[in-house]
Design brief:
Belongs to the glycosyl hydrolase 26 family. With 461 residues, the protein is an alpha/beta fold. It folds into two domains: 4-139, Galactose-binding domain-like (Jelly Rolls), CATH 2.60.120; 159-460, Glycosidases (TIM Barrel, Alpha-Beta Barrel), CATH 3.20.20.80. It is built from twelve helices and 21 strands. Strands 13-14-15-16-17-18-19-20 form an eight-stranded parallel β-sheet. Strands 2-5-10-7-8 form a five-stranded antiparallel β-sheet.
């Protein structure tokens, strides 16, 4: 079904008005249907379906001058939490979260940079199974300077951590730091582009008992220290294998023990009191990890520390019981590492977007998100803007895991001031599926991107 006439008519006065609403049922529909049974929609109906990856709505938008616009989605999500893609002119856009709701809601969907003349905005299926009523477009206001908290949240942060935060604040909004997960993948980037990422991403996964007792081992701490010795920066994630309760079945092997589906470990029950055995096991794991982080501290390495990542997704056990138990564990972890172990080299990076999951400004130096959108090299502006709102622009914002590299030209055009990116390892960087070698070379050669050579001496800058 294709109703171009209604869309174009609605846009006739777009240059004069600041906001316009485009009804979903008036777009070009592919694989989706118009519905009217769920009350409360605007216009003459809404669009439903989105059951297949190719399902989408396409809006034709004509504007008289090139301009950046804020976009919102009016939707209903009766089938649980979902995501959708907003794609502009077949060349990148934003992944947009659609939280579960049985009523019609409006959510920000990032920004779109409309070119003078004709533009196509598509709402693509992604997770699917939601209802779209309309989109709205409003001219974006110019963004003023950031208002970043000047001090680390740990009042006892050491000189290394303070120097790192000082440098990051200096470049934030002006440049983006390059990062790559895993030593082998970082070496691949160096060998294939001639440039080395500024940041290495590594994991504390294989240092705790539930994994080492089954033969796991790691030298990621060594890799981190070596990269720092070259003048680089370090970020650690922790795929925390549940300390007990791993199923270890053919379907859910022990090495998947950080996944909710692979363990019966209940974090809410473990935190119910400080005397139960599972609480003791959590503390033991934290203390084990502390011994590794102390090696970095003693080597003069500040760490962009990102524990309990992707919590709001629920696919990891630390997020499986909802936000309250996760936030409680994060605060316990913070206090155990900073107060008890005196790990003052840590920069605390929070890694969920929803306000319900945010543990508080006093525990977070940097906010961040992980996004994977194959084929989309856009600025991930919806996620960036949501993180901007999360702390009222008082914390720097990082793209801590990405599958597709972001185009620096679009980052600047969309005012998406990501502090750094870290591409995930293996095929995400080297297989030519998520990122072509030409694109990787282009990004690493861009003057907007800071690589290892560009940040030398950052501790004293």
């Amino acid at each position: 079904m294709f109703k171009t006439v209604l869309v174009l008519a609605a846009l006739a006065g777009f240059a004069a008005t600041q906001t316009i609403t485009l009804q979903a049922e008036s777009g070009r529909l592919s694989g989706v249907d118009i519905g009217t049974s769920v009350a409360g929609y605007t216009g003459t109906g809404y669009v439903e379906g989105f059951s297949d990856a190719t399902d989408k709505i396409a809006f034709t938008v004509n504007v008289t001058e090139s301009q950046l616009y804020d976009m919102s989605l009016i939707y209903n999500g009766p089938y649980g939490d979902k995501y959708t893609y907003v794609v502009l002119n077949n060349a990148g856009g934003s992944q947009v979260s659609l939280p579960s709701t049985s009523t019609w809601k409006t959510v920000p969907a990032g920004q779109v940079l409309l070119n003078q003349g004709t533009n196509i905005i598509e709402i693509q299926s992604n997770w699917g199974w939601y209802l779209i009523d309309a989109i709205t477009l409003a001219r974006s206001a110019s963004r003023g300077p950031h208002n970043i908290t000047p001090r680390p949240v740990n009042k006892n942060a050491n000189d290394d951590a303070k120097a790192l935060l000082k440098y990051l604040r200096k470049v934030y909004g002006k440049k983006i730091l390059s990062g790559q997960q895993d030593q082998a993948s970082l070496d691949w980037v160096t060998n294939n582009t001639g440039s080395t990422p500024a940041i290495i991403g590594v994991d504390l996964m294989d240092y705790t008992d539930s994994r080492t007792s089954r033969g796991a081992s790691s030298i990621d701490v060594n890799h981190a220290i070596a990269h720092a010795a070259k003048g680089g920066m370090v970020t650690f994630v922790w795929h925390w294998g549940a300390p007990v309760g791993l199923y270890d079945t053919p379907e859910q092997r022990w090495w998947s023990g950080f996944y909710t589906a692979a363990t019966d470990f209940n974090v809410e029950m473990a935190l119910a009191d400080t005397t139960n055995s599972n609480y003791t096991l959590l503390m033991h794991d934290i203390d084990t990890i502390a011994s590794q982080l102390k090696k970095l501290r003693d080597a003069g390495v500040p760490v962009l520390w990102r524990p309990l990542h992707e919590a709001e997704g629920g696919w990891f056990w630390w997020g499986a019981r909802g936000p309250e138990s996760c936030k409680a564990l994060y605060r316990i972890l913070y206090k155990r590492l900073t107060v008890h172990h005196k790990l003052n080299n840590l920069i605390w990076v929070w890694n969920s977007v929803s306000p319900a999951w945010y543990p508080g400004d006093e525990y977070v130096d940097i906010v961040s998100a992980d996004t994977y959108a194959q084929g989309d090299h856009g600025p991930i502006s919806a996620t960036y803007n949501n993180l901007l709102s999360l702390t009222n622009d008082t914390k720097m914002i990082a793209a801590t895991e990405i599958g597709s590299l972001m185009d620096p030209v679009q980052l600047k055009a969309y005012q998406a001031d990501w502090l750094y990116f870290c591409v995930w390892s293996g095929d995400y960087i080297s297989a030519g599926i998520w990122n072509s070698l030409d694109l990787i070379k282009q990004v690493y050669a861009d003057e907007y991107v800071l690589n290892l050579d560009d940040i030398q001496g950052w501790k004293s800058l």
